[in-house]
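Dear colleague,

Thank you for sharing your sequence with our group. We've completed the structure prediction you requested, and as agreed, I am returning the results in plain text so they can be pasted directly into your records. Please verify that the sequence below matches your submission; if there's any discrepancy, let me know and we will rerun it promptly.
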Amino acid sequence: MKLILIAAAALVASVSVAAAQMPPTTGTSTTPAAPPAGMPGTAESESSVRTQIEASGYKQIRDLTRNADGSWRAKATKNDVEVAVSVDSTGNVTQVQ
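Please find the predicted structure tokens below.
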């Protein structure tokens, strides 16, 4: 019985240490928690990039073009305001000034 209690205490302690090492979940990233289907963390095709931008809250995506470095640029609407957006090669969506 004591062995089971010791093992359980060790398990709880190791889980607590692992949880303490995880980054905080709050932030301003616009990248969805999981990339859309067909986009395993990279921005490869125009359709996957459109899906990634839409999943980040943008609408009316137009003028989508791929840059030489593998990133993408487009114009889109968010909160009824037209903005420029960029999608890097890992799928992160950023509003461009």
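Summary note from our side: The chain is about 30% helix and 25% strand.

Kind regards,
the structure core
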